[in-house]
UniProtKB/TrEMBL annotation:
It is an enzyme of class 2 (transferase). The lineage of its organism: Bacteria, Bacillati, Actinomycetota, Actinomycetes, Nakamurellales. Pathway: Cofactor biosynthesis; NAD(+) biosynthesis; quinolinate from iminoaspartate: step 1/1. The gene is nadA. It comes from Nakamurella aerolata. This is Quinolinate synthase. Keywords: 4Fe-4S, Cytoplasm, Iron, Iron-sulfur, Metal-binding, Pyridine nucleotide biosynthesis, Transferase.
Amino acid sequence: LTDRTAFRDEVLRLAEERDAVILAHNYQVPEIQDIAHHVGDSLQLSRLAAEVPQSTIVFCGVHFMAETAKILSPDKTVLIPDAAAGCSLADSLTAEQLRAWKAENPGAVVVSYVNTTAAVKAETDICCTSSNAVDVVASIPAEQTVLFGPDQFLGAHVRRILGRDTIKVWGGECHVHAGINGAELAAKAEAEPDAELYVHPECGCATSALYLASAGAVPGEKVKILSTGDMVKAAESAQRKGSRAPVLVATEIGMIHQLRKAAPSVDFRAVNDRASCRYMKMITPEKLLRSLREGTDEVTVDPVVAEKARASVERMIAIGT
Ligand code: 13P
Ligand code: SF4
């Protein structure tokens, strides 16, 4: 406890000295979540990055998130405690691949998930996150061809909700979410008939969850396809209503920490407790301390690329709740 208190005091002192705000994604390790000034999903953190008054942002998340913060706030210093914290989903679509895809589909509107590099964002018309992907695509006329990338499962979710066959989806995936499979989810749901299901739309099992509901194996109202921020809101609502139903959570396991804080009386269980993102977990308390002490690792985005990417990111943060 003394160590933890000393760590906390030192981090907060250094942050103040540097005029820095610490932002942490919901998948960070609990020690980082507990010390951050703000914890949230990728949309909430992007909005905060654009608004916070501090001159430095320390981004405890993965590289594309810190890059997005830099795109939105080019005059601020953006630090990430380990610049090697990448993302397998962002790696699944390069700017060259996107340019070739656009050339095959002239006139199409490009919607890219925020889990992309700055170079991909620069080739994009509107970015989105899992919180607002449906709203972003709904803002485009239905007859317009949309190229949606890179996540195939989020793309399939948007197609399903909007019922549009004009949406073409790239075949990328996140190795963590794709690994949470439908058979595992079905077995857990069968063993826990009262459970609610919180499923992230990046999961390969999102389709299975909806299939279970349509087949009557799980009551439809119990299946919720949610971004990480919306999972926290659902947990807060369960707590307010005094719900006693356990919740099966299909996403990266870091999520469970915020859910338990939001609803201490609800029993949250991971569908797959090995679903841990090695990139998110590269941000450790030691590296956060070093980042604040030494000003490392500074995130830079080529100003020409950033300028092109900014419009698509600004459209993203303006859409949805
Ligand atoms: P959210 O946008 O729901 O926070 O999910 C982002 C994600 O997958 C980051 O890895
Ligand atoms: Fe990327 Fe998946 Fe890790 Fe999220 S959980 S940062 S999408 S690899």
